[in-house]
């Protein structure tokens, strides 16, 4: 579903159809929230940190990072804030 959303949004923006691109992103976020997050609550809230829990978090992370980049043309400051919060928390800075 994520790949389909990327293709749809990219093609729509290539044709300057911001409405279709925005709707594709909105529909994906709705599905991510209502289907994936709600359906995997038990995996997220497990006490132990097993492979299953880490896989659920990795999938959610990839989706959120990708959505933050897709929404950048529409909401650049919000998408940057989301992206920075995701990336800074998960990737240590090189000093």
Description:
This protein has 95 residues and is mostly helical. The chain is built from five helices and no strands. Helix 1 runs antiparallel to helix 2, helix 2 runs antiparallel to helix 4 and helix 4 packs antiparallel against helix 5. It is globular and about 45 Å long. The termini are far apart. The mean pLDDT is 88.
Question: What is this structure, in a nutshell?
Answer:
With 95 residues, the chain is mainly α. The protein is built from five helices and no strands.
Q: What is the topology?
A:
Elements lengths: L1 H13 L3 H22 L1 H4 L6 H20 L5 H15 L5
Helix pairs in contact: 1-2, 2-4, 4-5
Topology pattern, helix = H, strand = E: HHHHH
- The average pLDDT value, as a whole number, equals 88
Number of strands: 0
Shape, principal axes of CA atoms: globular
Helix content: over 70%
Which residues form runs of ≥5 with pLDDT under 50?
A: none
- Pairing-aware structural class of the strands and helices? mainly alpha
> Into which percentage range does the β-strand content fall?
under 5%
Question: Which assembly state applies to the chains in this document?
Answer: single chain
Count of DSSP H/I helices:
5
State the end-to-end distance.
Answer: 37 Å
Question: Tags for this entry?
Answer:
95 residues; mainly alpha
